[in-house]
Amino acid sequence: MARLNVFLQHAQYLSKRRGGQMSFEQYSYVVGLIFRHFPCNLLVWGAGQDTSLWRTVNRGGRTAFLEDTQKFINAVQQRIPEAELHVVTYKQSMEKHYDMLRNMTDANLLIQLPGDLNAVEWDIILVDAPSYKVSRMESIYTSNKLKNVLVGKGRVVHILVHDAERHMERVWCDTVLGKTGFILIEGYRLNGIYSHIRHYIFGADDVYEADEMKRLAKTLVDKVI
Question: SS3 of 125, please?
């Protein structure tokens, strides 16, 4: 528990930085989930100021990051050269949101993952990219495709989607991952923006674990000063 508190103190620092990507409540929830399953296979859509946190919590496991924005790619390569970072390209834009909902095909929405990433048995997939200007339709769609293969093999897969309160992310979560059956983690970032994380668990009746994670996250938030 002492080591977990160190991770949470780092998460608290991130949540208080200008432009923090998650609230402390959300960071604590995701940290707790990874900590509960490490060493595991963790796939993160997006790289940035919390890249080091996810890698450190999942010590001994495989943590791979997918990023399309050059400034984040450069920053991670310079500051965390040991991170497993893969460059991806998104085909669609937010203007094509409604067209893509009517034409949900692999040709339109499936991201071709580099290297051996399609063959990895991912335990946790965190969708935190691309930006709102692009929309997360492709990362959500591709994550669901990965999940389908793994659940077919008898695996349990956790998919977390950050910024799910935004219209497009909410619609794509509803359409691809489901309107119900998720745990909602809410929080306010430092800039006052109210955000959601949806945590889906596929492949097992694991609502009990999700409830336990939420209770653990609240307990740890209360303990860290």
Answer: strand
Distance of CA 177 to the CA centre of its chain: 14
Closest-CA residue to 48 (of 74, 24, 23, 11):
74
d(CA 30, CA 197): 9
Positions of E strands within 8-119: 41-45, 62-67, 84-87
Q: Which two tokens stand for residue 90?
A: 């998104």
Rounded to the nearest integer, the mean pLDDT of the chain is: 89
The pTM of the full predicted model, rounded to 2 decimals, is: 0.91
Q: What are phi and psi of 117, to 5 degrees?
A: -60, -30
Q: How far apart are CA 151 and CA 148, in angstroms?
A: 5
Low-confidence ranges of the chain (pLDDT < 50): 224-225
